[in-house]
What we know:
Layout: H1 3-8, H2 11-19, H3 25-32, H4 40-58, H5 72-78, H6 87-106, H7 110-115, H8 117-124, H9 130-136, H10 152-179, E1 190-192, E2 195-201, E3 210-215, E4 221-226, H11 230-260, H12 262-287, E5 294-296, E6 301-306, H13 309-317, E7 325-329, E8 335-339, H14 346-360, E9 370-374, E10 376-382, H15 395-409, H16 414-417, E11 421-426, H17 435-451, E12 455-459, H18 463-471, E13 475-483, E14 488-495, H19 503-509, H20 514-523, H21 526-601, H22 606-637, H23 643-649, H24 654-659, H25 661-668, E15 680-683, E16 688-696, E17 699-704, E18 707-712, E19 716-720, E20 750-752, H26 758-775, E21 779-783, H27 790-800, E22 805-810, E23 820-825
Parallel strand pairs: 5-9, 8-12, 8-13, 10-11, 11-12, 20-21
Antiparallel strand pairs: 1-2, 2-4, 3-4, 6-7, 6-9, 13-14, 15-16, 15-19, 16-17, 17-18, 21-23, 22-23
Helix pairs in contact: 2-3, 3-12, 4-12, 6-9, 6-12, 10-11, 17-18, 21-22, 21-23, 22-25, 26-27
Amino acid sequence: MDKRTFTTLELPSLVDLLARHVSSPLGRKKALALLPSTNLEGINEDLDRTTECANFLSTGGGFGIAEITDPEPALHQLSIEGTSLEPKQVLELQRVISVGEDLRNLFNDPEARARYPGLAAICRSIADLRRALAAIRGKILPNGEIDDNASPELRRIRREINDRRSRIYRNLESLMRDRAQPAIQDEVVTVRNGRFVIPVRTDSRGQVPGVMHGLSSSGQTTYIEPLTIIDQNNELVRLREEEEIEIAQILFLISESLRDNLPLIDGAVAAISEIDFVQAKARLSAEFNCARPEMNKARCILLEDARHPLLERALRNSEGKVVPISLEMDEEHQTLVVSGPNAGGKTVVTKTVGLLALMAQMGLHLPTKRAVLPVFELVLADIGDQQSIAANLSTFTAHMKNIAEMARAVSAGSGSAHNGAVLILIDEVGTGTDPDEGAALGIAIVDYFRRAGATTVATTHYNPLKVWAAQTADVLNASVEFDEATLRPTYRLITGVAGASSGIEIARRMEVPSEIISGAGAHLDPAQHETSNYLKQLKTLVDQRSALVAALEEERQATADKYAGLDIEFAKREAQRSRQFENELTAVVQDFKVESSKIIESINDKATASRLRKEAESRASNLRRSAAVRIRKQVASAPGLDPQLGEAASPISEETEGTSAAAGAADLCEAAEDIHERDRVRVKSLAREGEVESISGEEYTVLVGALRFRARRNEIELLSRAEKPASKRAASLPRGVSADLGPSGDFTPEINLIGSNADEATDRTDKFLDEAFLAGVETVRIIHGHGKGALRKAVSELLRGHPHIESFGQAPPNEGGAGATVAVLKK
């Protein structure tokens, strides 16, 4: 990689922006040292970790790294045998070890390891340092002092020091109060030279025998250590020396304990810095609403709604809004010539492509809706004014010097020489000299890099270069849009058409005198004028076509919405009509039962009356069942019917059952042998239909959806008889319906959801699983990509409760890894 290109593309500014998102000096050092990589496997691993961390942070997770200070000085001193750490340094390493322990435990459970494998791998590299932590924890207070309980000896010494100090205080206070009151300046015990003294008036110091330890600033007070407490002060000094010795011993033992674990502590520091570094990448991704780029071995470039992060940040601070760009270059078209007016955004396009390519190779998400990029072995740029007075170089000479160096780096066939792609970025190619020579030189430069196999993005104002790009099969033309009505650039990039420079229009917008504008038009070459008009007309046609496509799409959507509304309205009316029919049917059946009961009650023969009563109840039940089948068919055939409406319209409801208790009583009289295995029945207590799976004596096992329900004969009623199944899976089809459920010869056990939203992906996957189940396959692969994890989450939620799924998990690395899910179907 070329460091000068990094500066040209403002990569150091981006790295500084990334470093602002770290939480510790450890992560900051790692962020500031970040450079693009050319290892595809390593780049994808870094991108996956960034994605995992972004998902983790979006759920409210955190790492607790903020309070860590730089432990490097302490580790350096620890590496020197026989040295002891300062208390503050011990606290720094204690904090590092404690955070390391928390990180090691953060991804311990299997679910967390499966969801965040990259982060879990980093944290698993942290060794178990609980013993080392226990050996130092609590021995040093937060303010850096050694705790009394750091050792039994220190506790004893400090207890004696406190006792000795209290005794000295009492003796001195008694002395000042009783024996030398006239000579005492103030009744205050103070310390001089580490010894307790009392303030005595200088003119009366002879009244207090003792050792003088100095005078006050005014000279009126003399600090005297009375003879009666000299021995006690000496004892206190000795105890303090013992305290210092014991503290030094404690620090030495702590340092030795940490020194024994130095390699493990270094590993924990490395892991913490990596986690903090990945966290900074994830935070940067969230700040600019970024997406994970797809890195490919083919030389394909796709940038959809791409934004330059530094430009977006600058505009955001000034309450402006960045205009995203979109471009696509396949393997057949590796050269892009961008034209258009000055200040239209051509340089921004070039810098955006270059910076985003470098960001992807640094493991960073990109501020795009979607991005597909190759790994570039070389990124070379010639952008901006390269004039150097010190080097005696004009602008044109400096550009040519850069082009010469780029040409040497990218000789013919350099793509294969570097075992990877090469990206060339040239702004205003051939500018700075005679326009005719500059245009010819620009064509030659771009063509040279095209034939060398490099991916090239060049900007120009030269019409010959635009025409050459239009006439060369593997070269793409693009332009930054210019609004002719307002004479202002829109900063949109339009691929497939060259743009006019619109220099005269821009001069007019900048209020250049009209005499100059008219004079420029008079001196304009007719061929140049015709070319500009042609480009404007072509641009107008492209705009009209885009507007037409947008209008047609809007009309199509409106038509679709209208028909969807009609379908829903029709379904609601059908449901309402079915409910009305149900109510009328209930009334008719009830009237039938009342009339039949009156007739039967008039019959004196009990046997005949009982037989007629059963027959009447059976006919009422059959009438209700026939009507239910009819309404169910009508509801099912209604287009766009909501399932809830269908359930509400069905006569098989609790209300109908409540008003048809007599019909239910007739069903109870049906003989047990009337119902057989695979018959369709209705479980009354559940108000749900099911299939009889097995019969054991008086107990029936009914399969209702994915649930099995055990019921007695009087708890179910027959709906339809089972027909001889055409296949094992067709056994539960209703009467009159047949299906061929054998495996489809062209069924592919794989579905690609990339590009779908969560709802579309769920619907497609559900239908795909039904087809897979019917086809009899054992495993399927669902490709959802990495992205922000929305598709993967939606697929996981669907699979977790799906009746066809036995188990599922992340695909192996050779089958897509975290970008795909493999599911095992039930047999």
